[in-house]
Design brief:
Layout (H helix, E strand, L loop, with lengths): L14 H9 L7 H11 L4 E5 L5 H13 L8 E4 L3 H14 L7 E4 L5 H9 L4 E4 L1 H10 L1 H5 L6 E5 L1 H4 L5 H9 L6 E6 L4 H10 L4 E5 L9 E7 L5 H10 L8 E5 L3 H13 L5 E3 L5 H13 L4 E4 L12 E6 L6 H8 L9 E7 L4 H11 L4 E2 L4 H5 L2 H17 L5 H4 L3
Length: 415
């Protein structure tokens, strides 16, 4: 059995690639990398399930690049992922790991000019990283695009549990029907689901399956806390916590909301209070999403307000604190959210705002993760001092949304 702390060279990786990995801080392989890289190099289909922050992207990127360096003709690998931000991040990791090797990666996601994208795909980049919907559009409207994938060697489904949900079924059906059936298929996920298990039984019977998954587990190095409060005091508590970030030595924080409406409104309230932040949700235009994510990732702003679109896969080392402004209704989403901190062995902290309406959901989360959140006591008297100012800011933002003629009211449905 391969050691969970194996060096990449001992896994059969070329020297130059091991050096690139080392330069990125990947000195030794994690358990999912040590287990999955050799079977991929040996030509097997692989299903890898491991908790967030365990290095799953490198587990497929490293062996793909190792084999690609021997034969780089045409589109060699197709990576499908559920969000645009994840697609960009995967592309960045491929680019960093392939330093010194001429590898062309192309991100194909919605929100960009489809004809420009088509021309780039027709140039046959080595690796295409795409969201399913946009790639389906290319396949349906340009038959030349499909021909570019005729020599495809690898198909990767990242965040496979999400991609195999019914919402992606039409897109995946079109894609799977138009790429070679003779290929290596790699599925990676933070959790195993019935869909993944069924896929293994039906189409990937001989696949190597690595599972470092003992039920739904929160990241052990994340300190989980909660604040029990009236819903009307959420903004005041949040304002206080943000004011303490420097004292708590928090480099950056992600604040999760459960709806686009809450995300937009909270972003406006913080702006009105003079707190610099960026927001991220699915109704933003691609240009705005890119700008927001870049500002947060570069450290230009320390606060990101996001829906669950940012809950999966994103790896930003400076995120020391995750705040659940609204409790996610599904335990798995809670695990993914707090997994944005305490990654790759680092420590982190999560704070969940709980109202009287959330108690049952929180008990379900704790039962599912077999972990308890600790009660965080904050100075309520001091917090109450800001209530009038914060209430005024929220009312002002609501009025602004009402009066903004450019806002599609049906789209956001705030009121």
């Amino acid at each position: 059995m391969i050691s969970s702390r194996a060096h990449f060279r001992s896994l059969g990786i070329k020297k130059w690639l091991a050096i690139n990995a080392s330069n990125l801080g990947l000195q030794e392989a994690t358990s999912v990398q040590a287990a999955c890289i050799p079977p991929i190099l040996n030509g097997l289909d692989v299903i890898g399930t491991a908790q967030t922050g365990s290095g799953k992207t490198a587990a497929f990127a490293i062996p793909i690049l190792n084999i690609l360096s021997e034969d780089s003709y045409g589109i060699f690998a197709l990576c499908l992922t559920p969000t645009r931000e994840l697609a960009v991040q995967i592309s960045e990791q491929f680019t960093a790991l392939s330093s010194g090797l001429t590898v062309r990666c192309q991100v194909v996601t919605g929100g960009e000019d489809i004809q420009v994208q088509a021309n780039l795909i027709l140039k046959r980049p080595n690796i295409v990283i795409s969201t399913p919907g946009r790639l389906m559009d290319h396949f349906l409207y340009n038959r030349k695009i499909m021909k570019c994938f005729m020599n495809l060697r690898f198909l990767v489904l990242d965040e496979a549990d999400r991609l195999l949900e019914p919402s992606f079924e039409p897109e995946l059906r079109v894609i799977f029907e138009n790429i070679p059936s003779k290929r290596q298929t790699l599925l990676f996920s933070a959790s195993i689901t019935r869909n993944i298990a069924a896929l293994q039984q039906i189409t990937m019977k001989d696949a190597f399956h690595f599972e470092a998954f003992e039920g739904l587990q929160a990241v052990s190095s994340c300190k989980q806390e909660y604040c029990f409060l009236p819903s009307v005091m959420k903004d005041a508590y949040l304002f206080y916590i943000i004011s303490q970030m420097e004292a708590w030595k928090v480099r950056s924080s992600i604040i999760f909301t459960s709806t686009i409406q809450s995300c937009q409104l909270l972003s406006g309230v913080l702006d009105k209070l003079g707190i610099v932040s960026v927001s991220l949700h699915s109704m933003k235009k691609q240009k705005e999403r890119k700008a927001s994510f870049s500002r947060f990732k570069s450290g230009e702003t320390k606060i990101l307000i996001a829906t669950d679109i940012a809950a999966r896969g994103l790896d930003i080392p400076t995120v020391d604190l995750v705040i659940n402004y609204e409790v996610p209704p599904v335990p798995k989403d809670y695990v993914h959210r707090i997994g944005r901190t305490a990654r790759a062995g680092r420590s982190g902290r999560s704070i969940t705002f709980i109202t009287q309406h959330d108690v049952r959901i929180v008990h379900r989360i704790e039962d599912s993760t077999k972990s308890k959140m600790a009660c965080l006591t904050l100075p309520e008297e001091e917090i109450l001092k800001s209530m009038s100012r914060i209430g005024a800011a929220r009312r002002c933002v609501k009025v602004a949304f009402h009066e903004d003629c450019g806002l599609d009211r049906k789209r956001y449905n705030f009121f």
